[in-house]
Design goal:
21% strand; 275 residues; globular; seven-stranded mixed sheet; binds benzoic acid; two-stranded antiparallel ribbon
């Protein structure tokens, strides 16, 4: 199973739970490089200034950490997966990385900004706890700039996986749904309750091609869908994957190119000054 082979996680997948799930970082970088490639405009939204202190929460292999540092900011990359942190350190020896849980990380002093790309949806155990931890790390007036999978993210894929499993006699309850894809209104409420003013917010569909996956959706499921395939009866994983592909092909691969149904929640939130 790709997600459990040796080297690292997927864009900070372990950050929220503290569980050391490990991922095949080589396969991840080869086939899912779009995660950071899509996010260069997120660094523009962050607008790091020289000398600013910035936390990259769920930093994965550190690509965006390095992009932020290249703009002159002092960056700390944080990830919940020890192997990922190890790889980030090897790739970017001049940068600082920390292995820590998204609910429980701490830095010396305060940061001017906390940045997060494609990682918060993996921190499903305690989203208010993650927000509280981000708030503790920030100075008053500091900004939280993030993008995450949103409501209905990859719904066509997960509906098909549930149906394929049901056809094998596996109920939905047997799957430990691995992600947190909140409704916009819900997440805004959490941010406000956590001491933030939301100054920018966008919910949008971002169809995401799998051009670097030789086996299309099968590679995506192999990388990310382990909680679904783990629920399949012994020996039935290939059937579940084949059926999922059959169920989704018309909508996600109408002309031979797999394009996944990603939706995004992107926001800037400012920590309210006390007093
Ligand atoms: C996402 O970035 O939205 C995502 C990535 C992997 C699995 C599920 C969602």
């Amino acid at each position: 199973m790709s997600r459990q082979s040796a080297e690292g996680n997927a864009a900070g997948a372990g950050t929220g739970s503290g569980a050391d799930t490990t991922w095949d970082a080589g396969l991840y970088d080869r086939s899912f490089g779009f995660v950071s490639a899509f996010a260069t405009d997120m660094v523009d939204l962050l607008a790091p200034e020289p000398g600013e202190r910035i936390v990259d929460l769920g930093c994965g292999t550190g690509k965006l950490t390095a992009a932020i540092a290249a703009r002159g900011a002092e960056v700390i990359g944080i990830d919940g997966d020890a192997a990922m942190v190890q790889r980030a350190r090897a790739l970017h020896p001049h940068l600082t990385f920390q292995h820590a849980d998204g609910r429980d990380f701490a830095i010396e002093g305060h940061a001017d900004a906390v940045f997060s790309n494609a990682a918060l949806h993996w921190m499903k155990e305690d989203p208010p706890g993650v927000i509280a931890c981000v708030a503790r790390a920030l100075r008053p007036g500091g900004r939280f700039v993030a993008e995450m999978g949103a409501y209905r993210n990859v719904r066509i894929i997960t509906d098909a996986l549930y149906q394929a499993l049901a056809e094998e006699g596996v109920p939905a309850e047997a799957v430990d749904f691995p992600w947190y894809f909140p409704r916009t209104s819900h997440y805004v409420g959490l941010l406000e309750d956590g001491g933030f003013d939301v100054t920018q917010l966008r919910y949008f569909a971002r169809p995401t091609p799998l051009d670097d996956c030789p086996n299309g959706l099968a590679d995506w499921i192999d990388m990310f869908g382990g909680n679904f395939t783990d629920a399949a009866p012994p020996g039935r994983v290939p059937t579940v994957i084949e059926r999922t592909i059959e169920l989704t092909r018309d909508r996600l691969c109408p002309d031979g190119r797999w394009v996944t149904d990603y939706t995004r929640l992107r926001f800037v939130a400012v920590k309210v000054s006390e007093g």
